[in-house]
Amino acid sequence: MKSFGTGLLMLLIVAVFLMVWIAMPWQGVVVLAAVLGLWMALTRRGRQTWQVTRVGLSTVTQRLGSSSVVVVGIAGVVGVLVAMLAMSEGFAETLRATGNDRTAIVLRGGSQAELNSVLDRDSANVVIQAPGVKKGADGKPVASSELVVVANLPRKGEPDSDANVPIRGVSGDVWALRDQVKIVEGRRFTPGLRELIVGKGAKAQFAGLDVGKSLRLAGQTWTVVGTFESHDALESELWGDTQSVASAYRRGSSVASVTVLLDSPAAFDTFKASLAADPRLKVDVSTTHDYFSKQSEGLTKVLRIVGITVGIIMAIGAVFGALNTMFAAIQARAREIATLRAIGFRGVPVVASVMLETMLLALLGGAIGAGLVWVVFNGYSASTLGANFSQVVFRFHVSGDLLWTGIKWALAIGFIGGLFPAVRAARLPVTTALREL
């Protein structure tokens, strides 16, 4: 019964620790480390803890094989977790950067994305003339009626592997609407001609998109005349004139969406209210920032769930690795620990020293795993299927917050992996341990 109660208490300690640890910001951890340092420097038991810890660390080289199991296992957990979270963060950040609060996008009511939205010409004209839309120097509203279609193109280095690439038909006002888009090679397309400009991301991922190349799309020959960069999801697209794209893909005069430049972010409510009150329209209105952020929510959530699930499974394995390593270390040092207790070292320094040793090994593993992911994956370009059932090119983003998350996971694994061996070391009978060979 006593053993059962002790085990239940330790599980409760682990649960409370994990709850507090997950919620604790980095400032709290720094304070906690400072308090621990002061305790070890200013109190008798703290100094005893440091002495025992120093002895334990000095024998790590003698236990290099078993200690490396802890370090490598935790490095693997942290590496996989941070890489998966960096993928979801990079994808979400790419889409969030695509929109802003100065522009609004209008789709047919109930449409989840531009690909399944259809607006006729009359509806598009009503949207463009709505209150709140900024007028250009010529007195005309700054707006772009746009059409999004999908084409199959081969990936670079994989001629037999096609992927969906979005082609966006845009109007002449798109350059004022999306001033982040810059031509970096070649020129803009000419309205009315079958010419395309391609995003840098699409050009890096797919074959045949160099300036001057010709593409066969929808039974028509198109010429690539320029390359643009925008540092957002638009770099995954090919752009052409709306009317040319609509003609090639037999879309008549309809468009998928209308994007407008607002007088100011505050004008959005007026713009949205006027469209909602118009009986001729049934549309959904949102800022481009909200629209593109929403497009990333589903996949980002899936990637985070997968990353955390895989991380938990691997963490369980790493915990068992740490348990085995520290139990073996305590068994090898049983006489040493018993001798320390016999000459006056109490249970607290023994427990704390074993915990510190395990968490220092865990910290080393976490730093290695997080560092490797940052070196290898930060800025790494990849593509995945987006809301328009087409490829979105994005870059992994290994932020400081993700690195800190990885380190926290490593320390949590070290805490759990060291707690049970530490308690066993403190409860080891002195007379029994001294008799062991």
TrEMBL record:
Domain of life: Bacteria
A Pfam family it matches: FtsX
Domain MacB-like periplasmic core: 70-276
Location(s), subcellular: Cell membrane
Chain segments annotated as transmembrane: 12-43, 64-87, 305-330, 350-377, 402-423
Organism field: Luteibacter sahnii
Keywords tagged on the record: Cell membrane, Membrane, Transmembrane, Transmembrane helix
Entries under InterPro entries matching the protein: ABC3_permease_C (IPR003838), MacB_PCD (IPR025857), Macrolide_Exporter_MacB (IPR050250)
Membrane topology: Multi-pass membrane protein
Protein name as catalogued: ABC transporter permease
ABC3 transporter permease C-terminal domain span: 309-429
Chief place of localization: membrane
